[in-house]
UniProtKB/TrEMBL annotation:
Originating organism: Neptunomonas qingdaonensis
GO BP annotations listed: DNA integration
UniProt protein name: Integrase core domain-containing protein
Every Integrase catalytic domain range: 144-310
MF (Gene Ontology): nucleic acid binding
InterPro entries: Integrase_cat-core, RNaseH-like_sf, RNaseH_sf, Transpos_IS3, Transposase_IS3/IS150/IS904
Length: 355
């Protein structure tokens, strides 16, 4: 019967061991040899059993009073870890993702092992998003844009490279009213600090600091980062977010990424390096804003609409069609094509607003 070092030995088992040793010594065995045979030292038996009084002692370790570790988490720190892990941004991710993401925002709450211990004790090591399955996420409030720089949409998408396992990140901001790409850049990381700097440069280039611009996005980590939130407050930009994992709540960015990756010049084999990716995006943005006639804004270019030139262009088209109708009325069964100016654009409109 070998005893593992440090193992707790219940009182009935101790009683059995002492009885076996006593029987062995009565039959002429040395007590030290009997103890060694059982995998115990004679000092251990002396702690268990007081021969003069015949008293057998229980293991005192379970009931021992131990001072709390000086580095033990406080209740406030434990609550902060649980609160952070259950936020929408992190509910579906393990500590291995959460801790580095917080560090990117210059925040340190605890190590990954500390996060695991706290989650285990709280019974939340399983996917925490499952606990939120009954939570209803309401549709974002409808937003309406009636002029440029009033409502923007932004997102981040992957750009493939020629190096296996590597990709770049395309940051794009589109003005929902004009469809103009007001901001575009490529980075090798998805980071809140980069997003904040990117937004600041875009706001400056459009000269709309503290003009009440609303920025709509999904719930990605860079979008929800503290750095990004602080920068938005500094620039006077309001936030709007999609429901988790509902791409339809951010349709303008999704549509723009599709247009980007279906462009005839898109490198199907991926980009060679970051410089090449940035150069391609610069050329694409120039084409998209200045040459591409967008179907959603009556086939004018985003830059024409952004600069307020589309109303006159559409009026000229309408006059051209009216003259053509008057010249050959038999060729026109119905009214001429609708070239009316689009005076407002909706994001996530209510059903009754959808034509």
């Amino acid at each position: 019967m070998g005893q593992q070092r440090g193992r707790l030995t219940p009182l009935p088992e101790r009683h059995k061991i002492i009885k076996m040793i006593n029987v062995a010594t009565l039959n002429g065995a040395r007590k030290a040899i009997a103890c060694k045979t059982l995998g115990l030292s004679i000092r251990t038996i002396q702690r268990w059993y007081h021969e003069k009084s015949g008293q057998l002692f229980e293991d005192a370790r379970p009931n021992a009073i131990r001072p709390a570790p000086t580095n033990k988490l406080s209740l406030k720190e434990t609550a902060l870890i649980l609160k952070t892990c259950n936020e929408e941004e992190f509910a579906s991710y393990p500590p291995g993702y959460i801790v580095p993401t917080l560090a990117d925002d210059n925040r340190y709450i605890g190590s990954e092992s500390t996060f695991y211990r706290v989650l285990k004790k709280a019974g939340q090591l399983a996917d925490r998003s499952l606990t939120k399955s009954n939570k209803k996420h309401t549709k974002p409030e409808a937003q309406i844009a009636t002029k440029p720089n009033e409502l923007w949409s932004w997102d981040i998408s992957y750009l493939a490279t020629q190096t296996r396992g590597q990709h770049y990140y395309l940051y794009l901001i589109v003005d929902i009213f004009s469809r103009k790409i007001v901001g575009a850049d490529v980075y090798d990381r998805e980071l809140g600090e980069l997003a904040a700097d990117f937004l600041q440069r875009t706001i400056w280039s459009e000269k709309c600091v503290n003009k009440g611009t609303v920025l709509h996005s999904d719930n990605g980590a860079p979008m929800r980062s503290f750095t990004m939130q602080a920068k938005m407050r500094d620039l006077g930009v309001a936030s709007s977010y999609s429901r988790p994992r509902v791409s339809n709540d951010n349709p303008y960015s999704e549509s723009l990424f599709r247009t980007t990756k279906y462009h005839h010049s898109w490198p199907k084999d991926g980009f060679k390096n970051l410089s090449e990716a940035r150069g391609w995006v610069t050329n694409f943005v120039s084409w998209y804003n200045k040459i591409h006639k967008h179907s959603g804004i009556k086939y004018v270019t985003p830059e024409q609409r952004h600069n307020g030139l589309d109303s006159q262009l559409l009026l000229n088209r309408k006059e051209t069609y009216l003259k053509a109708q008057q010249a050959n009325p038999t060729r026109w069964r119905n009214n001429i094509r609708n070239w009316d100016f689009i005076d407002e654009v909706s994001l996530n409109p209510e059903s009754k607003d959808v034509a």
